[in-house]
């Protein structure tokens, strides 16, 4: 389990890119301002209750009310608003069209990920993982297939809602290679708290190699038991909900499993991806993530579950 929790829950004060840095700076300043205001209110309350009579008279005077209750907050909040809008202006700059684009669609309760070319065509389909090059801004097209979700990788940018019927844009950028945890930040029902995400930043050359490998998928050497697993996958109804490129599995209701063998997590970021967790997920997904839309295949024997897991393991 620990392997799956890289950065999850993600720390919100550890930015790894320019868009997250401005949000983090603003958050720290707002926190400091909140603490300062709280301290002033507590001090005023102490004076009102226990302070000397002279201070009580000054605290209740008309001049204090105008300065402390009207002028001070008006000036401070106006200055804070202008500074905050200036600091975060890059988050709302116009899209130039030259940025790399990825479409991420929120589903109950996982993320569909599609890498797009310049014409907006899907080049690679994936789920629950976002791969991006270091040092390059990436525009995320956010959509929702059902209810309102929210996409948030705190290391890389602020959060933005995923709204049914609308497409919203969010810039992300990583200034260093690594793995960064993400979450759905809007309660969307059921196992919302188990709707995780992993963003993986590669050096640019490594990223290009990764993307080219995904686009030109090679048939993996067959593992012992894989052919039986493929037959069970098709016969048990898995293919009705899941797509595996190059096979008769064309379902779109669930995550695309074309590259599931190379993913680092299962169940939308909640389990490390290995044969044992794959077997457990197929056989009893409802115990692991109660309420998710994949039924538990507890009618299959242990050998049958392992055979399916072996076949999925070689989908890379």
TrEMBL record:
CDD domains in alphabetical order: CuRO_CcO_Caa3_II
Primary residence: membrane
Alphabetized Pfam families for the sequence: COX2, Cytochrom_C
Domain (Cytochrome oxidase subunit II copper A binding) ranges: 97-213
Top-rank taxon, per record: Bacteria
Family named by the database record: Belongs to the cytochrome c oxidase subunit 2 family.
Protein name: Cytochrome c oxidase subunit II
Positions of the Cytochrome c domain: 224-316
Catalysed reaction, written as an equation: 4 Fe(II)-[cytochrome c] + O2 + 8 H(+)(in) = 4 Fe(III)-[cytochrome c] + 2 H2O + 4 H(+)(out)
Organism of derivation: Pelagerythrobacter marensis
Gene3D superfamilies tied to this protein: Cupredoxins - blue copper proteins
Keywords of this entry: Copper, Electron transport, Heme, Iron, Membrane, Metal-binding, Transmembrane, Transmembrane helix, Transport
Transmembrane annotation, as ranges: 26-49, 70-91
Keyword Cell membrane attached: no
Localization per record: Membrane
